[in-house]
Amino acid sequence: MHELNAHAPHSIVTSAALIALTLCITAPGIATPAVAQNEDGITYPSRPIHIIVPFPAGGPTDILSRIIGREMAVSWGKPVVIENRPGADTTIGAEVVAKADPNGYTLLAAMDSTMVLNPLVKKDLPYDPLRDFQPISLGAKNMSLLEVRADSSAANVQDLLGLLKAKPGKLNFGAGTTNGRLAALLFAKLTNTSFAIIPYKGSADTMDGLLTGSVDFVIDGIASSYSLIKQGRFRALAKLSERPLRQLPDLPPLAEAAGVPELGDISTWIGFYAPVGTSSEIVGKIQHFIATIYADPGVAQKLDDAGIIPVSSTPGELDAYVRSETERWGKVLRESNFAVE
Length: 341
What we know:
Elements: E1 2-3, H1 15-19, E2 24-25, E3 36-37, E4 43-44, E5 49-53, H2 60-76, E6 80-84, H3 91-98, E7 106-111, H4 112-121, E8 133-141, E9 144-149, H5 157-166, E10 172-175, H6 178-191, E11 196-199, H7 203-212, E12 217-221, H8 222-230, E13 234-239, H9 254-258, E14 269-275, H10 280-294, H11 297-305, E15 311-312, H12 315-336
Parallel strand pairs: 5-6, 5-7, 10-11, 10-12
Antiparallel strand pairs: 1-15, 2-6, 3-4, 7-14, 8-14, 9-12, 9-13
């Protein structure tokens, strides 16, 4: 896997600005740098590509897909349409791609929830992550943050724990994914606290919930909230990883700040998939394109400005990563007897 450390940002790209990107971005007349063909011998791409994002517009998966989609349209000279299909913890969007023709024109921007956690915690899932999809590449490994509004009396994690213990069951936690709810359940169990978990359809809705006061604290990726932290509207209390975070270098790991070593890395990742049966030539072309644009300073700047930590991989590396994450989280769920659904 190839992780990119982007340069320092010049400006913050807000979710609203990225939502304003057109859903169909076209740059006709530009030569395609490589040729891939489907089973009928037709050069790929010869028509619009659809990237299914199983979240509302404005979250990290949507932001990353729009940045990549725009670069694809410019380089390949064909429209790239970003389709937001939120709902059922990414299940709705994933099912669309699982049932699509394997011709490279319908792709999925998936998350750990889609490929790892949903299969572990949901019954009668309408797709199988290993049977129905062809891995293409990792897209990002985002850093999840524990956050409150700036007007919260919790200045740090210990303050938040004090509030939770003083008002058991009274505070609300916002979660837009299975990953977020699992993080909340682990946090509650390991810190001996209780609070209500309010479900949302994605990161953008979760951020709105915190802004409006519908919830008191959240765990979500930095890409969703970095601009709001910089504006002084949110306060980050901890990161759910031991990894360095350039944007917030002094932010402590949650395990350390809460005094609970078991609270390890619960950050999210994004990966790109095609329906199973998609030709290796098409998959290879898309994978190579993602790896190539991540090395471009202009693209690196856009990703860094959005708080996205880009990571590319080969299809085989992505497949192995999903299998190892499934084993890791399966063990956590079995040992903890969690019921997330």
